[in-house]
Sequence to fold (569 residues):
Amino acid sequence: MTKQCKQCSKTFQISSDDQTFYQKISVPEPTLCPDCRSQRRLVWRNERSLYSRQCDLCHKPIISLYRANSPYTVYCYACWYSDQWNGSDYAREIDWQRSFFDQFKELQLRVPRLSAFMVNNENCEYTNGTLGCKDCYMIFASDHNENCMYSYGIFSSVTTLDVLSGKNCELCYDCIGCTNCFNVRYSEDASNCNTAYFLLDCKGCGDCFMSYGLHNRNYVWKNEQLTEAEYKERLAKTQLGSTQTIKRLKADFKELKKKHTFKYYHGQNNDNFSGDYLERCHNTWQSFECYEIDNCKFITHGNQIKDCYDGYMNVDQCELGYELVGSVGAYNTKFAAACYTGSYSYYIDSCKQVKNVFGCIGLQNQQYCILNKQYSEQEYCITRDKLIKQMSAIGEYGEFFPVSCSPFTYNETAAMDSFPLSQTDVVNRGWNWHTPPDKQQRFSSYRLPDTIDKVEDDVLENFLTCEQCQTFYKIIPAELRLYREHIIPVPRQCFNCRHAGRLQQHTQRSLWQRQCMCTRPPGQAAGVAGAAQPEHGHGGLCQNNFETAYSTDSITIVYCEDCYNKTIV
Ligand SMILES: [Zn+2]
Ligand SMILES: [Zn+2]
Ligand SMILES: [Zn+2]
Ligand SMILES: [Zn+2]
Ligand SMILES: [Zn+2]
Fold:
């Protein structure tokens, strides 16, 4: 069935499988297209904008996702989880004459909010979405790391900086999507590699430079096999500590990407699926960065979930869920943000272990509540059904919270990364925008030398001007120590611009229908020249079609899995 999006007017499809799912969980069919629904969820995620402020209960200074002048009451972790307050203190009667979302918004403005999402960390004040980390700085949506900085989506890594999506990495710098790597820099999609620079889609390689599509190789330079002595000589001549050199090499690396043949998606061990960065997923469609998910659709960052549609970030161990943001362990729950365990609930925000609640905020271990007010089981069921009926009549039921209910401004959130809008666009839509205090008025005369060995300690006392967005940024002593020790030039851009640059290199969360570009007989295949090429079982152009996150207008060469596997040397 074809529908037209209420927000962007584009048409979108609802399949019979989708209809079955919506019926199973008793929600009307969506009125927004998948992208607009995704945008509406993403505005709930301020992942990287941190502010200094006070806890509104203990008045200690804290680092928070909420500005000091934000209209919300904000408690530090200890106060929010203490018994000094209770969500029921803010209970409200339903006003049947008014919109439910308006009443929900009013409740939000009263119930205290958790300052930031940090659990069991040590010395990781300037982070968010972190768990079990130690001595980390400016890392986000990342667990079990030590001594890591300026990264997003890193797990179990040590002394790793400027990484987007990494797992089990040590001493890695400026990488995207690398796993089990040691001392790898400026690389993408490398796994099990050791001491390498500018690698693309390589596995099990050591001492390699500016190469792509290699498996288990050593001393390869620009996809050319060298002897150990030759390799070491070339590397010694390369000024890795010079900003100019790294800039030039990064430009070369961009050119190299055009030559490489990519598998149409990242991941393995999936069946019946579409998306990118998937592992062990089954009957899963239009989903990204997911692990072990089953019968799901429109999920980004899902982990071990079943029968869920529409989820973003930390959707972990959920079943029968719909429109979830940052929710862990939810069963049969619809429209939830920042919730931890619970079941049979609707429209919940920052709740823990709730069951049968509707439109509640900041409740823990409670059931049969609406707008934080306690009802008997029977009253709850009658009132809930009446509310669903009334909300359905005015088109509220079935919709996720409107953007205006997000506790953050548009440009503070992950929506800005995936759906960038100008201030005017945001304001015209009636959404909120925050203009940060203008740092640009200050003047910095400090000039960084080209090479790291010439950088003096006074760099720490000075503001640096980002060469891209012109705002000021600083570097910290631990960071400078690492740059010096490992001969890495001081970055010329602020973290925001560096992160945005990496996001641009990463595939987008959209899919295009494409055909495998492999033609036989082989031309010059990818890999090291001279290696034997296996047979492909097709003459001329391969007829395999697929959905891929490599867009039709990108010049990326994409192959089906079968053809791609045969290019590996
Ligand atoms: Zn739309
Ligand atoms: Zn406090
Ligand atoms: Zn910048
Ligand atoms: Zn093919
Ligand atoms: Zn082929």
